[in-house]
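Give me structure tokens for this 126-residue protein.
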Amino acid sequence: MADEELEALRQRRLGEIRAEHGDPSADPSQQEAKQREAEIRNTILAQVLDQAARARLSNLALVKPDKAKAVENYLIQMARFGQLAGKVSEQGLIEILEKVSQQTEKKTTVKFNRRKVMDSDEEDDY
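Here you go.
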């Protein structure tokens, strides 16, 4: 029985140390909540997407996880508000991807800051 108590103390102390150092795996309730949320997301996406669209979304998640997460959030939001009439096909997913890409498109601008130099072209070189 002393071994069980010792092991429980070790586990509790290990959890405290991880919590102090900001390790997200320290709190089991947070892990369970994240796992439940992931299961709910996967269930909703399985109901909303057909097989080809789901495969395309998983391929996108491998390459650009932030964009795939945005598309998943968009699809889940549409499903919750009843804006989807049936399963989304691969072509429908491509259209949604284009919408999300347009919304999150980063526009880069280049601004030239020309410095004025003491030497000008007006003066004659000798």
